[in-house]
Amino acid sequence: MNQRTLTPYEINHLQKHGFSKPLDSIGEQPVEYITGHAEFCGLDFLVNPSVLIPRLESEKIVHFAVDYINRQNLAHPAVADIGTGSGCLGLSVAAYLIKQNTPYTIYLSDISALAIKLAKENAGRILRSPENLFFQESNLLENYPHIKFDIILANLPYIPSNNIATLPESVKDFEPVSALDGGPGGTQTINRLLTQIPQYLSDRGIVIIEIDDTHDLNSFSFPQKLQASIERDLFDVPRFLIINQKE
Ligand SMILES: C[S@@+](CC[C@H](N)C(=O)[O-])C[C@H]1O[C@@H](n2cnc3c(N)ncnc32)[C@H](O)[C@@H]1O
């Protein structure tokens, strides 16, 4: 493998986790898979090659969710994190709500049993009191109980299949393709979720879904009862579908 020049962030990350000597032959392997750690919303998540490394831009999903809970004065919000991976979205929401003493119920689900195992481990390490968290192996909402959620978060695979080969080696050769490949056009999994949403969203509820920057509202099929808009991420790129029930 070719040796690469590490960025200051990568050197710092390796040192912080006890890797002080130069590493041989790491090729394009992400440093987070070497140390087994990734920071998200200021929290230290365990990661391994069965889950995506949480991305900085996804933190905005957590901030949207907590702001919405506070603006709507939701006293005990029910939250679903679909495609939870390391658990970064749902567990970060839980961490913020614990800090402000807001009780919650949070479901974290993934189609991958290995992801659920790691998300559970992260809950035990990160949260003071990992209560009212329910972990569910589930294809989208299939295995969910029939309850109405105030907040549905989803960062599902959304890269168009044809674009996978063009991703950086550090992504396409190391991160799980099942976390990346959104089928033709990249909208297949998200469109399937959209058909399930009306059954599971409370009247005042909101859905926040991360999308590819090549997508716009016309890329998706929204059930009649729902209305949607697109928000930009911290790099000013269109990145999130914000959905609620029509009035
Ligand atoms: C892009 S990763 C996001 C992981 C994490 N939420 C994050 O923000 O870093 C997508 C996740 O969705 C899961 N996934 C893929 N298809 C799914 C499906 N049909 N139902 C539930 N989860 C799915 C993958 O296993 C993967 O963990």
From TrEMBL:
Residues 76-158 form the Methyltransferase small domain. The keyword Methyltransferase applies. GO terms for biological process: methylation. Pfam families: MTS. GO terms for molecular function: peptide chain release factor N(5)-glutamine methyltransferase activity. Its EC number is 2.1.1.297. It catalyses: L-glutaminyl-[peptide chain release factor] + S-adenosyl-L-methionine = N(5)-methyl-L-glutaminyl-[peptide chain release factor] + S-adenosyl-L-homocysteine + H(+). InterPro entries: HemK-like (IPR004556), N5-glutamine_MTase (IPR050320), SAM-dependent_MTases_sf (IPR029063), Small_mtfrase_dom (IPR007848). Keywords: Methyltransferase, S-adenosyl-L-methionine, Transferase. SUPFAM superfamilies: S-adenosyl-L-methionine-dependent methyltransferases (SSF53335). The keyword Methyltransferase applies. This is peptide chain release factor N(5)-glutamine methyltransferase. It comes from Candidatus Collierbacteria bacterium GW2011_GWC2_44_18.
